[in-house]
Design a protein that fits this description.
The complex is a heterodimer. By secondary structure, chain A is an alpha+beta fold. Chain A has nine helices and seven strands; from the N terminus they run H-E-H-H-H-E-H-E-E-E-E-H-H-H-E-H. In chain B, the strands form four sheets. Chain B has an eight-stranded antiparallel sheet with strand order 1-2-6-7-10-13-14-15. Classes of the chains: A alpha+beta, B alpha+beta.
């Protein structure tokens, strides 16, 4: 016994998976509790007394023109929320979705009246996966399951140690929203 | 007694940083989360290889010409990098950036070409916080800064009085609890990253993993790993993944690189640092160092003893 404690040990992943350890480590299945849009509004503009929201449906031409800024798949429906204190515009919060490796990431970017980014928050995140997106069969298997346990995948990431998943698609999304904000500001 | 649990994710350090906090009330939890993300943002801004304004970029441009003042954080990470370089006889080397640039894992910096002979011994760190390179070289703190950022965030959360916290920067994670809470730990299955393999629980410990199976890179890079041997270049077929459990995430992060290159020969160093490791090899075995399973709360090692 003591000998085995002093040396390296070996075990197969298959036997680990069936060793009952999963009972010790249940996947978290509660709904993701990141931020609501309302929480993001208040966090970004705590001094605001009024939020004025509308939905922008980006045309294929608009989406295409934003590809020149940064290429990432954007859902194309953006919530634009102006934050007001009295009659003073404090800034605008955009709520948007970009496609990560596998799933949509919902995020909120607050842009101040000076045109600079004030904050970036992720509201919904379901992604734990990376390379499997290349395999259509992998994607298909989640078609039904996502409805039953919509946040399951993102939720257990807090206890998974693995290789880094890049966030470059989100950076691209922010660049696109900044460009969109500048376009819209001209036409206001 | 009511408590407040908050979870936030923000993009920093080139990945998604998750922070979970439990505190006495929402005000403490919000304040602590804010402070923890500030720490991570500060490390990102100081140590990004990609940003031209970072300490790292300024060092790569100028430190061979004159001493460059850096933030306390950058100095601490450089000192830690040097310590790991010494402990590993140079296997851990923060000056391998040219190899990573060459194979497209890092962007080409706006800096003079690195001297091919230059290495970590050419970095001089002054006690006053300035750094000088004896020859032109490119440092990249990507092998250690993420772990350091996690440690800084945990320190801030602890200082601000939260009950429990976990900070996970893309798989480099550290858990803190003053209430004896344990944190379940799983690693990704190297053949199917959508599956995770549960290993046990950690408490007040840090974990980091290195693997070449989930880099999200395109095309021809899939076989390459960001683990670069200082003498032999970019590794092609290292272990599928390495997981290290240590007291700090900075140590765990650095040790994953050393264990990837040394395998079981890293044992003395693991013992010296009070750390333990698991190596997952294709197709399906996990080799655990002495102490790995006990760090995860198991009374005895799982599986069979492995004789050299």
């Amino acid at each position: 016994m003591s000998k085995s404690c002093d040396s390296w040990s070996t075990v197969s992943l298959v036997s680990l998976a069936s060793a009952g350890l999963s009972a010790l480590c249940p996947p978290a299945v509660e709904a993701a509790q990141y931020m609501s849009v309302e929480q993001a509004e208040k966090a970004a503009f705590p001094d605001a007394d009024r939020f004025d929201a509308r939905t922008l449906r980006l045309t294929p031409e608009q989406l295409h023109s934003l590809d020149a800024v940064a290429s990432v798949r954007q859902r194309g429906e953006v919530r634009q929320i102006d934050a007001w204190a009295g009659n003073k515009l404090l800034g605008t919060l955009y709520v948007d979705d970009v496609l990560g490796k596998v799933e949509w990431v919902t995020y909120a970017v607050a842009i101040g009246a000076d045109g600079a980014v004030r904050s970036l928050e992720i509201l919904e995140y379901r992604e734990t996966h990376g390379y499997e997106v290349r395999m259509p069969s992998w994607r298909k298997q989640f078609a039904g399951r996502r409805l039953e346990t919509p946040f399951h995948f993102g939720d257990d990431i807090k206890n998974i140690s693995g290789a880094t998943l890049s966030c470059s698609h989100l950076t691209a999304g922010v660049q696109r929203l900044l460009a969109l904000h500048a376009q819209l500001a001209k036409s206001r | 007694m009511s408590t407040c649990t908050l979870r936030r994710i923000r993009p920093w350090l080139g990945t998604y940083v998750h922070i979970d906090v439990t505190a006495a009330n929402d005000r403490v939890a919000e304040t602590a989360l804010h402070a923890a993300f500030e720490e991570i943002a500060a490390v990102h801004q100081a140590m990004s290889f990609h940003s031209p304004d970072s300490d790292v970029s300024r060092l790569n441009r100028e430190a061979h010409l004159h001493p460059v003042a850096v933030s306390a954080g950058t100095q601490a990470v450089l000192l830690a990098a040097r310590r790991f370089a010494q402990l590993s006889s140079g296997l851990f080397d923060p000056t391998i950036a040219p190899a990573l640039v060459q194979c497209g894992m890092l962007p080409s910096p706006t800096a003079p070409d690195a001297d091919k002979e230059a290495g970590w011994e050419d970095i001089e760190i002054d006690e006053g916080g300035s750094v000088r390179f004896r020859r032109p070289l490119w440092i990249d703190l990507g092998g250690i800064a993420k772990g350091y950022a996690v440690d800084r965030a945990i320190d801030a959360l602890e200082h601000l009085g939260v009950h429990n916290a976990c900070v996970n920067a893309g798989g480099d994670l550290r858990h803190f609890s003053r209430q004896g809470q344990r944190h379940p730990l799983a690693v990704r299955h190297p053949d199917d990253a959508s599956r995770s393999v549960p290993l046990g629980h950690i408490a007040n410990k840090a974990v980091a993993s290195s693997g070449n199976f989930l880099l999200g890179r395109n095309g021809g890079q899939m076989d390459a790993s960001p683990i670069v041997h200082p003498c032999h270049g970019v590794a092609q077929s290292r272990p599928r993944s390495v997981t290290v459990i240590a007291g700090t995430c900075c140590e765990a992060d650095a040790l994953t690189k050393i264990v990837s290159l040394l395998g079981r020969d890293a044992s003395p160093l693991l013992v010296e640092l009070g750390a333990s490791a698991a190596i997952i090899e294709a197709p399906d075995t996990l080799q655990a160092s002495p102490g790995f399973w006990s760090a995860l709360g198991h009374g005895a090692p799982l599986g069979q003893p492995l004789h050299a």
